[in-house]
Every structure is written in C-alpha cells, then in structure tokens.
Amino acid sequence: MSTGIGARVKRKEDKRFITGKGKYTDDVRSENQAYAAFVRSPHAHAKIKGIDKSAALAMEGVIDVLDGHQLTGDGIGNIICGWAITSKDGSAMNMGAWSALATEKVRYVGDAAAVVIAETQALARIAAEAVEVDYEVLPAVSNAKKALADGAPEIHDNAPGNLIYDWEIGEEAATDAALSEAAHVTEMEITNNRLSPNPMEPRSAVATYDAAEEHYTLYTTSQNPHVARLVLSAFYQVAPEHKLRVIAPDVGGGFGSKIYIYPEEITCLWASMKTNRSVKWTSDRSEAFITDAHGRDHISTAKMGFDADGRITGFKVDTIANFGAYMSLFSSAVPTYLYATLLSGQYDIQNIHCNVRAVYTNTVPVDAYRGAGRPEACYLIERMMETAAREMGKDPSELRRANFVREFPHQTPVIMAYDAGDFDANLDQAREAADVAGFPARKEEAAKRGKLRGLGYSSYIEACGIAPSAAVGSLGAGVGLWESAEVRVNPVGTIEILTGSHSHGQGHETTFAQIVAERFSIPIENVSIVHGDTDKVQFGMGTYGSRSGAVGMSAIVKAMDKVEAKVRKIAAHVLEASEDDIVIEGGEVKVKGTDKAMGWHEVGLSAYTAHNLPPDMEPGLKESAFYDPANFTFPAGAYICEVEVDPETGVTEIVRFTASDDFGTIINPMIVEGQVHGGIAQGIGQAMLEQVVYDDDGQLITGSYMDYTMPRAADLPFYDVHHASTICPNNPLGMKGCGEAGAIGSPPAVINAITDAIGSNTLAMPATPHAVWSALQAAQ
Amino acid sequence: MYPTKYHKPDSVDAAITALSGAEDGKFLAGGQTLLATMKQHLAAPSDLVDVRGISDLSGIRMDGDTLVIGAATTHAEVAASADVNSACPGLARLAAGIGDPAVRHMGTIGGSIANNDPAACYPAGLLALNATIVTNSREIAADDFFLGLFTTALEEDEIITSVRVPACAKAAYAKFRQPASLFALVGVCVAQTADGARVAITGAGEDGVFRHEGLEAALSSDWSASAIDGVEVSADGLMSDIHGSAAYRANLIKVMAKRAVAAA
Amino acid sequence: MDMTGEYRIAAPRDAVWAALNDVDVLEVCIPGCEEIHQDSPTTMTAKVVQKIGPVKARFDGAIELLNIEAPASYTIKGEGQGGVAGFAKGSADVTLEEDGDETVLRYEARAQVGGKLARLGSRLIDATAKKVATQFFNNFQQHLNDPDPPEDG
Amino acid sequence: MTKISMNVNGKAVSRDVPDETLLSDYLREHLRLTGTHVGCDTSQCGACVVHVNGRAVKSCSALAASLEGAEVTTIEGIAQNGELHPMQQAFTDHHGLQCGFCTPGMIMTGVDMVNRYKAEGRDLTTDAIRHELEGNICRCTGYHNIVRAVEDAAAKM
C-alpha cells in the first residue's frame, strides 16, 4: 500500500495513545517533586494592599510562599506582546505592565498575586487558600464598549481610556465615497462571541532547576517550545537560553491557547530555583477558564455598498476588540493583520476601510484561538453577503458569484495578494454535494412536520503559513515566521526528521514521514519525526496558523533537497556514473537505464564509513534547512449548512453540513478530513453553543462545563467533506493548510442557515435554543 | 480535596453512629454531586459515611402494586430493572436519561432525592408519581418531602432507605436539557394516578421541584396533549439564567408537558 | 439581580423601625447568622453560614445601615467574604409605611456574588439570593408577630 | 491513610492512601497508570472513564476507598496478549483520535456501551452512539470519526 503523498496512511502515533502510553506533561514526575498552587484574585479589579503568608507558611509541608515583589525583585521581566501595532496617529500601542505574579494590582478574576510551593498538590491548594491578600476592590469593567466610555475604570495607567491602539487599514475617503454612491447599502452590527479554547488537556508545567549546572528544564504544554524558550530567556530573564531546555511532550490539543508563555510557566521555573525543588503545576478545568487565553470578542459595525448589479463597491468596518486585562503574546496581531487584511473575502472589492480599537477590560487576556482573526473577518463578510442578498432579493450564491475574484494573483486593498484559487469550483462542488436543488422540497416536507428548515452559505478565505519574515517584520512582528528542519540519514538508512513544528493532534509523525518515505523510497516505518524538545531540535517556530504543512514541510523538503544532492554525488561516485543519471526508487539508488544500484542503506553507510566518498566531500548524511515562505497561503472553500429548527423549543438540528475546501496539495486525506471535522465542530460550537459570559462587574459566570457548553457528539452531525483544489504556487509541495478552515468557514454558514429558517435576521452567536426561540418570539 | 475520613458501615444504625460521631459528617451515596463539590473545595465534610455498604438499601422489588426501590440503587439499575419497566416504565425511562452512562452507573436514587437539586430529574418523577420516601424512622409522602431549593424533610441524621412508587402505567418524563450541564432546564413528569393527573416540574422553579395545578386540572379532565394548549403557565417564580429566561422556561413547561403526555 | 417584596406587619411603625435597627433582631432574622456584633450604631460584623445543597460557605461579613430616614426608610447593606468560595454582597432599600396600627414594609434588594460561587454556581445565584432575602423578611415579619424567635433558615 | 486493595488490569494491587483519594489519583499518582486522564473537575469530560466491576465510571468521581476489592480495568488493560482490543483498533482505523487526550476515556466508554447494548440485545445505531457519548468530550475530532470507530468496533466485538 502506498504511503506517499495522497495516501490515507493510518497514524503512526496512534498506538501509544490508544494504549494509554502517551506521555503528557502531567504524566511527568520528577524526583524531588514539589507542587505549585496559585493564589488567585476573586476580584476583577483590586489594589493589593498586603499579603499575609504566615498561616500558609506555618502549615507542615508548605515549602514556600512567593509573591510578585520577590519575582520582580529577582529581575524576572514582564510578559510581553510580541507584535507592535502603531496607531493611526503614529503612536505606539499602550502596553500595560504584566508581571507573572501581580504586584500592585490585580486586573481580572484569576490574576495571581502569589504562589504556594508544597509537598503535595492537595496541600498546595489548601495552603493557597490560607494566604490572605488584602484587596482594595476597585470598580471593574468587562465589556469593551463600556471600557471605552467616559468615566470607565482605568485598568492600566499608561492606557488612558483603556485604549491600547486605534488602528486603521484601507482608504477611508474612497470607501465613504463608494458607499455614498451605492445603489444599496447593507448595514449591520455584529458581535463575535468570546470563547474559551478548551483543549482537553489542561495546561501543565514541570520545572526543574539543576543548581550544579545552573540549568533549567521545563516540561510544558506548548505548541511552540522554542518560542517559549526564546521568550522565557530573552524577555523574562528566567534563564539564559543555553541554560534552559524546554520540552513539550505529547500535548493534548492547543487550538492557539498553548502558543503563549503564561505566568504559570515563568513562575514554576523561577520557583524551582528559589526552592531548589522540581516544581509542578497542573491546571484543573476551573482554573483553565480563568487563565487560558480566551478568543474572539469583537463588536463591529459594518456597511457594505453594492451597485445596481449587485457588485460590491465599498466595505467599511469599525471594530472594537476586547483584549482582556493584559496584552497576551500575539493579541495585537489578531484583530489587525489576521483580521482586517482578510476583509476582502473571496470578493473583488476595490474600496475597504477598517478601523480597529483594541481595549483593555477586567477579563482574562484574549489572544489567538483557532482561526485567529480570520473567523471574525469571515463571519462579518459572510453574514453581510447573506443579509445583502436577502435585502436585495438575490440568490445568496449568485450574489457571491457576482463578486468572486477570478484572476490571480489578485491584490486586495488590504495588503493581501491572493495567489491561487477557484471559488466557483468550491461553490459548485458544495452546492452539488449539498443537493441545493432539492432544498425547497425538503423545506416543504419539514414544514409538514412543524419544523423550519433553512440553508446557509459561507464562502471563506483565510491566510495561512503566516509569513514571509521580512513582510511580517515590517508590520511589527517580533519574530520571523520561517520554519526549520533537519534530515538525519542514519548509517543504516533510517531517517530522523527534526522539525520545529509541533504536533499536538495534527498527525505530523505520519504526514511528515509520508513525504520523506516517498522522496527516498523507503518504508514509512523507517522514518521518525523528532519534535518538541529544544535540546534535540535546534530551533523552530512551532505550530499555529495552519502553518506546519505549508511552512514546516517545506523546510523538510528543502533539507531533503540537500540530502538528495549529496546522495546523488555519493552514488554517482560509487557507481561511477553521472549525477544526472541517478534515480531513487524501489528502495535503491540506481543509475538510470542500467542494473547498477546501491541499496538506500548502502548510501547511508557509505556516507558514514567515508571510505569511498567523492574528493572534498565531508562524511555523514545530515542536512538542515530554514524555509521562509514567499507569501501567505490562501486556503478557501464553500460551506453549506442546512438546519431544522423546532419552533416550539428553538432547538436547531444541523441536518446536513457540506464542505468543499481548497487546501492545495493534500498529503493524507484522512488526516485533512479529520482537521476539517474538528474545525467545523469548533465553528458550530461558536455558532450555537459556546460563550464566555462575564457579568458587569467582571465576574466570570461560565466557569465550568456546567455553564460553558462544549460541543458533544449528539450536538453535531456527520460532515460531508469534499476537496476542489488549486495548487499553491508559492511553496514546493503546493500546500495551503487545513487546520483552521473549518472553524473559520462554518459559523456564518450555520447562522445564515438558522436565520433563513426562522425568517429573522436578528440572531447573535451562540444561537442557543433560548436565543432562537426568543428571536422567533420577537419576529412574531 | 480537603482531608476527610471515610466510613463504610454495614447497617443503618452503624451509619447513624458514624455520622453522629463526626464533627461535620455527610452521607455519601453515589457521590456524583458531593465529590465534585469537594473537589472544588466548596464542601469540606470531616467524615464521609458511605451508605452503599448497607444491604437493606439495595435492590428493587414489588410489594403488591408498589415498586420498592432501595435508596442505594443506581440510575442504571432502575433503568434496566424488569420490575420498574413493567410497573412504571416512565420511571425507568427517566432514570435512563439522568446524567450520562458513567454517572448512571454510580449515582443513586437516594442520593439524588436527598440532594434535591432544583434541576434534578428524580424529584419530578417521584412527586408526579406520588411516591413515598421511606427513611430509617418514618415514611414521607413526596408532597411533604421536597421542601424547596436543595431542601428536604430529612433530618440531619436520617437515612433514606427506600422509595415506594405506586405502579403507574401512564406516566412519562420529558426533559429539556440545559445544553452545558445536561441537567434539566425544564423537566416535566406527568402521571395518571388514581387521584387524577399529577404533573411535577423540575429545573424551572426558583424554589425547586413543584406541582402545577393548572396542568393537573386540565389533564385530569382530558388526558391529552391538546388539553394543555389552553393552560396558562406563568413565568412568575421561575428561574432565569444565561440558559433560559423565565418566559422561555414557562414555554418549555407546556411543550415538555405535551411531549410527556404523548409519550406516556 | 433585583428583588422586591411587600409585607404587612401587625405592629406600629416605630416598633418596626426599632426592630430593624436592633442587632438582636437582625441576628435571629438573618438566615444562617451564627454571630453578630454591633460596632457602631450603623455598623455590624457578622458570621453567616450559607448552605446551597452540598455547598457550605461561611461568610465573614460587614453590615452597614445607610440612607437612614427614621422611622421611614433605610438601606441595609451586607458584604461577606466566603474564603475559597468567593464573596457575596447585597443591599436592600427598606421603606415602612404606616397603615393604621399596622405597618407595610417594602423592600427592593440587590445581590451580587463573586469568585468561585459566581463561576460554578451561576444558575443558583438568583434563586438563592431571592431565598435569602425572602427568608430574612419572613423571619422579620414573624419575629414581630410572634414573641418566640423564628428558626434560622 | 487507609490501605486500599483492588484488582487492577488483572493484577492485585494495594496502596496506603489518604481517604479522600479519588480513583483517578489512585491510578495516576499511586499506581502510575497515567493513561487515565483528567480533563475537568465537574465530572463531565469523561477523559477519566475506567471500568469498575465491568461498568464504565468516571474515576474522578469515585473514592478509591469506596472500591476496596473492586475489579478495575483501565486503558492499559484492555489489549490482550499483545493484540489491540477491537475498540482500540477501530479508533486508529477510523482516525478517531487526534491529540489522544480524551481517547482512553472514549475507548473505555465505547467498550462499555457496546457490551451493554449487546447484553440487552439492543441495536447500537449511530444516533445511539452519539447519545451514549454524552459524558465524553472531545475537542479535536468533531466526533464524526469517533462515532464511526465505535460503530465499526461494535460490529467486531
């Protein structure tokens, strides 16, 4: 059976997971293990007037109680946001100081003021309750709009009016002019609900300080251990980079929330040095709700103008983005370069203007969550398109077609240059698979059963890979967004791939091995993928933004190119042939048109014995490469959702969900479909179930699975997933990325379907039964 | 969790002795609520007295026309019991819908009703079915047992030993689940009893499970879903939270009552 | 969360007003009140235990009387720290109206909780607040109608 | 501290543990059987599901002390003689897992549901599978492939 590109290879990593042998951070237990528990604020906003540790310190088994003044006193730096955004008036963003342990003030429920280190986890938690923090409670604000209002409580001294930045993109005057001349203008206020990422594995850290070597080891639940090491050493001064090893072993899902370097990892590393113990912290789910970065939380007003033929003439958006109490690592980039730059959608729009105000509130910090900015853009555009079609009495798919970009490359007015795509092909394929033609009959049949049936579209586009480095650097990014790889061919011919990408469910151990096995014509079992350990892999940027294929695998290809070049030289030398005649196939390195051949393993052995290498060739067969992409990639597609609403209860059932995606080259369709399934499920979750709710005083009232609705099996349908691909011209494999598409494309399809069913357009996410029923009541 | 001392007595007397000897003891039945609360540090009993070792508390049997269900019987056992399925199939189906399969393997009927969570299923079932709660010292009619939000007629050291449910062929429970917790946002149990229709509602009332006179009157005179159409269900006294307003709950009471009648 | 209520009390307004300002009366009427100390004519500290099902929280609280318009109205405000459970705050605007020998008591109350109670028990907050408020005024009415102190709820 | 003895995956085990020790902690921390995961603290995610005396329970919601003498089976104990259990095989065959964290609980729940439906002679439809999975949360797969895996395993068990 083929294991090459396009083969549905079963996952190599599965065996350890299905037998309970996976090794996650919480499974790590060091000798000399101690446990950390944080003393967290129950108040959304308060001054710390004092901390009384005496009762906790008196408990037998409590090793130490450490506070923010000790942490900053030891020179541990503030947590930073790594992407600088400049306001439209030229001023720098107002980043408030964020200490891993608060010193003067706490700014959200969950902000930690101290940490207890104790002999057992249970004891640490009990002792943390005995630490008495004297708070002076301050007024708090949780809603971003209210935070901007006059007289709102100010959260950071250096962010007057709680404004972090006021940024714009596009031409405002031209857009205003286009709207004023439009034959039809659709206007909406759209909220993108706040979500909690909820990877099933709670975050965890095990930090161990070796006093003899002055060396630190950190096991942590990270999507990007190298970035963690870089930031921990360069910005937080926890340890010099060469004295810090970061290992992200098996990681139980991330969805963005495990990109960031959180207060807990910093504190555990520092505490391990202070106490000379290995310090372990594992979040429980309740703690995750008040510490893991949340996602989305935008309020936007938008106007879209059309000419008499239904062609979009202008699109103007004003967005307020809630950042929570502090600026998390990538927070600033999400509502700007990952959001506003995608506001052209799949459409040829000549005039776009978007203004974004980023705002502090007394809530958990907000950062990238699966899709990051692109779901917000897609939801806005696709809700506008559907609404405009209804207002103008046009078929929603025809209105989209009237505006599709059909010539590539296509430069949008908001930075992006789309490189390839066939949006008609995706829409055609989705309509066909969804049997749109049969919908009226199904609607009629449903009506006989007392059910309201609706159908909704979404034509999404996203920008993935997140690169090139020079471009993102000019836009304010603090790091380059390339990826690295190393291909080590062992003397026996087996291969280890060291990659800076991190796998936490994406199946890299299989897909990465597939391209290597195919390239060198060896069994896939003979390839292993090494990742997640800064001592093994030199550097890497990790996994986010659907970049592991388009960027991470491209780096592997570049390293394989170098290996192949050397293999050809060795084989040509040994087999006394021209390099140009060397072919690699059937497990052998052959001279084309002859029976002269070496086994693949013999080439490896030759390289390492070095008895007979070409003159001036170094021994060994190991190459590395850094790949910096030339452009973003642009996955796109069409999603169609069909629903049935029970008007008595407001319950919506998704009866059909059809996807047609363009991901470019697909290495393993099984894994790609799995990514789409999971993304759609999270998108449906956002559209129908999930919502982080704060009360006006900044108290989180969805603090557990008792109130935050996680999608369950019975909430979700089987997904009908198809592909209609164009090849990405900008990377060697032609890949675009598939990890986020489902989460980006599905929410508007769902809401468009439900609003179609109930005949009312005033419906916000999540469209819970209560919300749908209320919309139906209001419409009556 | 805070430290606690675990006891597993084999008799009711021993259980009461263990509890009375404890500084701040609690009975433990299935533990599906209590242990979760203890994990959150929102309960800190000094002692847990597990009643599942008491043989008198287990088993299901018929006593004439009355089902007798031991207090330590799990939801799964009630759901699967041949006696329950023949004498009161509506109760078996109610039990089959509590929590999830793993919870049904641990949670017990006695634990559920002693807790009297305002969104639990059993209180509605037992109230509609006119059940009697039997304790180590007395028998309490369901009407007198459920006293409001998490409140029952039980004394501190009183143990539920069994529940007596009169056979009822025409009874059903319809639950509209709160989407996150899967507890009842509104659960309605209807039963056609010798004394007329009884309708009990859980999940909705600010003061826990309650009977609805209007629905009972309508169903007593005409046992049909359409009889419910004309009944006024007020939102007064109903809970309102992020999952549903009082008005929505009032609507669901009618809808679920009709579905329950149709299923009975 | 706003709550309102109205009670008819078989006592003259001055007696009702006196009771509303009597720490011993408050002690028996505040549900779950274990102890209470008067610190000044308008401030008190109290320990209150609240049980919500398996949840048991002990609050160290401060009670304050504000906006005093004797004998017609005041605001009674309470704030309690419940340790690990979080905190609870509440206040009630109470007005007394003479009606012959009797008094009509009206209140408008608000409650707020924070911390774990808010995060984990949001579904129960409103119902519990209403229950506590109702119990307090029920107890108060009974106390004035009945010389024997009512039982704590 | 109480000495708690059980039969775990066919082996007699005995440990002195505090009375408040949950079964999940007993397995993970005391027996170092870390295949059983803990994903929530309100007994909803199901990552910790194991079998106690042949029935699926959430090990985070049971005290070890209450299970003296019990037969406990965890994810580490269902493969026999080096052969994967049909449910394990089906999960990999159908790509029913991604990050793998919820997987042990899913598999243990899947085995339990198939066993019960078979014992009761009931038909395990895909709708029934979805409803039986209501106590298990997966954030990666969208459940499509999990449902297919359980369906396939049910045919082979």
Structure report:
Chain A is of the alpha+beta class and 780 residues long. Chain A has a 7-stranded mixed β-sheet. A 5-stranded mixed β-sheet of chain A has the order 7-15-14-13-8. In chain A, strands 18-26-27-28 form a 4-stranded mixed β-sheet, with helices on both faces. In chain A, a hairpin with a 5-residue loop joins strand 16 and strand 17. In chain A, helix 18 crosses helix 19 (741-758). Chain B is an alpha+beta fold. In chain B, strands 4-5-10-6-7 form a 5-stranded antiparallel β-sheet. Chain C has helices at 13-20, 23-29, 116-120, 122-145; strands spanning 2-9, 33-40, 43-52, 55-69, 73-81, 87-99, 102-114. In chain C, a hairpin with a 2-residue loop joins strand 6 (87-99) and strand 7 (102-114). The model of chain C has no long low-confidence stretch (mean pLDDT 88). Chain C has 153 residues and is α+β, with helices and mostly antiparallel strands. Helix content of chain C is 29%, strand content 50%. Chain D has helices spanning 23-30, 86-93, 103-120, 126-132, 144-156, and strands spanning 2-8, 11-17, 49-52, 55-58, 71-73. Chain D is an alpha+beta fold. In chain D, strand 3 (49-52) and strand 4 form a beta hairpin. Chain D folds into 2 domains: 2-77, Beta-grasp domain (Ubiquitin-like (UB roll)); 86-156, [2Fe-2S]-binding domain (DNA polymerase, domain 1, Orthogonal Bundle), CATH 1.10.150.120. The chains are: A alpha+beta (780), B alpha+beta (264), C alpha+beta (153), D alpha+beta (157). Chains in contact: A-B, A-C, A-D, B-C, B-D. Chains A and D meet through helix 1 and helix 18 of A and helix 2, helix 3, helix 4 and helix 5 of D.
Q: Count every beta strand of chain A, where a strand is a DSSP E run of 2 or more residues.
A: 28
- Derived structural class of chain A: alpha+beta
The CATH topology of the largest domain in chain A is Aldehyde Oxidoreductase, domain 4
Which topology of the largest domain in chain D does CATH recognise? Ubiquitin-like (UB roll)
Tell me, rounded to a whole number, the average pLDDT of chain D.
97
